[in-house]
Amino acid sequence: MAQIEIVWSDGKLTATLRDTPSARALLAAVPFETTANLWGEEVYCTTPNLKLSKEPDARQIVEPGEVCYWLGGDSLALPWGRTPISRDARPCLVEACNVLGKVDGDPRQLARIPSGASLQIREERGRNPFWK
């Protein structure tokens, strides 16, 4: 399975991606730098030069730590808990999003990313079977 790293000034985490068209497109677009934004218990960040189509299994209600792509904002959405529109403990995204994978380990580590932080999204070398 392919993995990416999400790196900020005082932290780093990895996420394992599924084998989907959106995940493969994200891998082709890395590395890039972006800025973290917060919406409740979700980090989201724009993805330059990445425009995706909605996949058949896109969902609005996801599990903590799922790596999602928000089509309406051309952004990665990385929830670890409730958002302002959640009806229960699960993250509820602003609209149905493509699910690309899942953060490795405890998704609450996403809470350490401050709003406005510079993020690097890059491939974790040596673990990507799609890398040529």
Strand content is 35-45%
**What is the 3D form?**
globular
The helix/strand class is mainly beta
Helix content: under 10%
Which value, in Å, is the CA radius of gyration?
13 Å
Gap between N and C termini: 14 Å
Number of E-type strands = 10
Number of helices: 1
Major beta sheet summary: 10 strands, antiparallel
Strand and helix order: EEHEEEEEEEE
> Could you name the ranges where pLDDT drops below 50 across 5 or more consecutive residues?
128-132
On the 0 to 100 scale, the average pLDDT is 93
Structure write-up:
- With 132 residues, the chain is mainly beta.
- Helix content is 7%, strand content 42%.
- The relative contact order is 0.32.
Question: Brief overview, please?
Answer:
By secondary structure, the protein is mainly beta. It has one helix at residues 21-29; strands spanning 3-8, 11-17, 32-35, 37-38, 42-46, 59-61, 66-70, 75-79, 92-103, 118-123.
Helix-strand blueprint:
Layout: E1 3-8, E2 11-17, H1 21-29, E3 32-35, E4 37-38, E5 42-46, E6 59-61, E7 66-70, E8 75-79, E9 92-103, E10 118-123
Antiparallel strand pairs: 1-2, 1-10, 2-9, 3-10, 4-5, 5-8, 6-9, 7-8, 7-9
